[in-house]
């Protein structure tokens, strides 16, 4: 097997593994209160399905699905960063209403809602998108 198809399949397998690991972590911390906390599970489900489809049947439609699911995962992860910072900021203002500037910024970035937790979902999406970069199935309208 040539290196390029193997690398693409490896990237898709790592994307699925990372999506699943993120879902397990979210379930373990009971991350399912409200639509903002359910959205990552939906994104992960779409990402797993699309990446697995592209891995099993690398055709134009499956490759495009994996790419767009990866983009959606990355955008969702950025929204997760926003919600985490917003939650940390609200908590910091409630606990220490007099904090300002650097102290408040630090609290927002290092609070109870981990800022980098959505990074797993973004990583999975970027891995899936990378696997589709200049994919031969996308050439020539096949």
What does this structure look like?
- This protein is mostly helical and 142 residues long.
- It has one domain.
- It is built from 5 helices and no strands.
- It has helices at residues 3-28, 35-56, 60-95, 101-110, 119-131.
List the keywords.
142 residues, mainly alpha, 5 helices, 75% helix, elongated, transmembrane helix, transmembrane, membrane
Structural class: mainly alpha
Note the quaternary state here.
single chain
Number of helices: 5
Distance between the termini: 22 Å
Shape type: elongated
Strand portion: under 5%
Spell out the helices and strands N to C: HHHHH
Mean pLDDT: 92
Query: Whole-number radius of gyration?
Result: 18 Å
How many β-strand stretches? 0
The description of the largest β-sheet is: none
Task: Please estimate the helix content.
Answer: over 70%
| Unreliable stretches covering 5 or more consecutive residues | none
Domain module tally: 1
Transmembrane segments: 38-56, 68-85, 115-133
Keywords: Membrane, Transmembrane, Transmembrane helix
Write the layout of secondary structure elements.
Blueprint: H1 3-28, H2 35-56, H3 60-95, H4 101-110, H5 119-131
Transmembrane segments: 38-56, 68-85, 115-133
Keywords: Membrane, Transmembrane, Transmembrane helix
Give a brief description:
Keywords: Membrane, Transmembrane, Transmembrane helix. The chain is mainly alpha-helical and 142 residues long. The protein is 75% helix and 0% strand.
């Amino acid at each position: 097997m040539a290196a390029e198809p193997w690398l693409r399949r490896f990237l898709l397998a790592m994307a699925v593994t990372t999506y699943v690991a993120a879902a397990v972590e979210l379930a373990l911390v009971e991350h399912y209160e409200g639509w903002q906390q359910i959205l990552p599970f939906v994104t992960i489900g779409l990402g797993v399905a699309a990446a697995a489809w592209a891995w099993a049947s690398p055709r134009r439609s499956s490759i495009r699905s994996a790419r767009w699911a990866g983009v959606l995962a990355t955008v969702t992860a950025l929204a997760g960063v926003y919600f985490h910072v917003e939650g940390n900021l609200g908590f910091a203002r409630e606990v220490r209403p007099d904090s300002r500037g650097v102290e408040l910024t630090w609290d927002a970035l290092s609070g109870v809602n981990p800022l980098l937790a959505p990074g797993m979902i973004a990583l999975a999406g970027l891995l899936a998108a990378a696997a589709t970069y200049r994919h031969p199935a996308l050439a020539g309208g096949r």
